[in-house]
Input
Amino acid sequence: MPNHRFEQRSDLYMIFVSIIFGIFIAVWLEPVVKLFSPTESFTEIFEVIKTRAVLRGVLVFLMLIGLWWWYAWFLGHIDPSQTLWMFAVDFITLGAFAMGFRFWAHVQIFPIVVFVAAGLMLGRFSAAIKCTNSRSKERWALILAVATLGIYAFGASMAAAGSIFIYDGSDEMWNKIWYWIDNGVMGLLFLGIVATALAAIKTEGMTWRKPLPLVRKA
Output
């Protein structure tokens, strides 16, 4: 009976997360529409495609897929939210990502939101480790996720400290700082995508069908 109840909670959690991520896709599309709406010819469309904004949009979309895998599939089987406080943390984290997916084309808002959400994820994933068996593939995946999120947190602290140290009050330096931060965020997004792919390969075999089962600590 306890296992049956856990499976029910797991299914409900996956539905809850999947609905949220369905909304995320619609929110992510809005900046895409704004990027391409002024274009009138294939030449203009090609020029837009070559911009950094489109590259960031692609990375954000891949991160969206990765986040769904971590929350709906991985945590849904290992440690789905079961209490008000756990749901509150997930709501706040996913709400922060909702803002990020809405403003992914904004050079200043997006990095701040990503770092805040990554900090919340760091705590959530660290707490989920206790639900995995020692030396299991699930624990390996969570440790990889926590290490990656730790790099995010370290990068955010270094960016904040460095910006305060080098900022001279000029608009030119202000724009340079955010340009550097934007490059760093894009690199961290790529790192997160790679870490998710490695975790998927380790835990489910990255097969087209019939993935390996995820096992919760007994």
